[in-house]
Amino acid sequence: MDDDESIDNGMEVEQPEASSKSAKQVYIPGVSRALKEGEELDFDPGAYKIFYSFETKWSCLSFDFVREDDPSTDLPLKCYIVAGTQADKPKNNELTIMGLKNLNLLEDDDDESEDELSDDDSDDDGDSKKEAIFHSVSVSHYGGVNRIKAQRLGDGTVCAVWNDIGKVQLWNLTNAVKECVNMSTKGKEEKQIQEKPLFSYITKKEGFALDWSKLKQGDFASGDQARNIHIYRMHEGGTWVVDQRALNSHSGEPW
């Protein structure tokens, strides 16, 4: 029986519904088409379980996660990160330890519908409990930070820093991390403390490549724009010695 006969006999024929929306595609910078005038990129909430936005005083080129004493996967979540700023003047830069706390899962449409049925008082109370909390402790740092890498050494936290004035430094962030962990206000709280670098080494050129050794605790390496790779070795008493003879057979600038 063809379609015409089906219609003539009063039988209903199901037709596929036309899609009202075109299929979503991931936008890849440099690959996807350029944005048209007035277009803006937006995130797809379906791609995330948790999504929050936080702001620092200055833009940051690099950040790293700080390992906690007692990490937990129970909700609400929290995490600690350290970032280095790119301020307008060298003297205004900072190393900033941030505590991102009270992080909850994104609500789906069903949860939002249930919330609309609840009374205003319970809505306000629920919203306040799910608001993310931002705590930060900053340490003054001279020069913009190209790269920062945190490492747990014993009971303390240190970070290696590459700055834009050609210095590789080590900073003890143990006190700053403790201050951030102990902050308990329900809203935004910021504090600044003073520290001095544990170690400092001046290179011929600035660089961006920096990482801790996974084979020997406390050792790390840096790569600069003069193709030099330096190895820094930790010695007893919390001191570091750098190999003066750099590895320089690298064929390109280490990034």
Automatic annotation (TrEMBL):
The keyword Hydrolase does not apply. Residues 39-104 form the Histone-binding protein RBBP4-like N-terminal domain. Pfam families: CAF1C_H4-bd. GO terms for cellular component: nucleolus. SUPFAM superfamilies: WD40 repeat-like. Residues 108-126 have a biased composition (Acidic residues). One of its GO terms (biological process) is ribosome biogenesis. Residues 1-24, 108-129 are annotated as: Disordered. The keyword Ribonucleoprotein does not apply. Keywords: Repeat, WD repeat. This is Glutamate-rich WD repeat containing 1.
